[in-house]
Design goal:
By secondary structure, this protein is α/β, with parallel strands linked by helices. It contains three helices and four strands; from the N terminus they run E-H-E-H-E-H-E.
């Protein structure tokens, strides 16, 4: 038997990731609270492997190694839970510091590494060998 599809668009639940708001000032070696909160968000949503939690870092204050330490530990906690974190509203100084120490984070609102920005088209020169 076959059934006619229902009229209109299919109903799809929107999947908005949970948000963990990080506020400063940060205290060195005090990462237990945010890591526990992140772990609860990862386990509470039931999203399974690949779950994303958005970390709002706008209120962290001045960028420093304490912020880098916190974000690195949060990323480690997320990966151990089978997910990852995405940063929201990082300051340019924090982005530069993360880049300087070699930590790569997914930023909200930026294209993925392998995804070209919108409006960019690749061109091929005539005579280029096809690969």
């Amino acid at each position: 038997m076959s059934y006619a599809p229902p009229p209109g668009l299919p109903i799809v639940d929107a999947m908005t990731p949970p948000v963990l708001v990080l506020n400063g000032p940060l205290v060195p070696d005090e990462v237990g609270g945010p890591c526990d909160a992140l772990r609860a968000l990862m386990e509470g949503g039931g999203g399974g492997p690949g779950r994303v939690v958005v970390c709002d870092v706008a209120g962290l204050g001045p960028a420093g190694l304490t912020a880098v330490n916190l974000l690195a530990r949060l990323q480690l906690t997320a990966r151990r839970s089978g997910g990852r974190i995405r940063l929201r509203d990082p300051s340019p100084a924090l982005c530069a510091l993360l880049d300087l120490v070699g930590l790569r984070f997914e930023m909200e609102g930026q294209p993925e590494q392998r995804e070209p920005p919108l409006g960019v088209e690749e061109t091929v020169e005539p005579g280029d060998p096809a690969v």
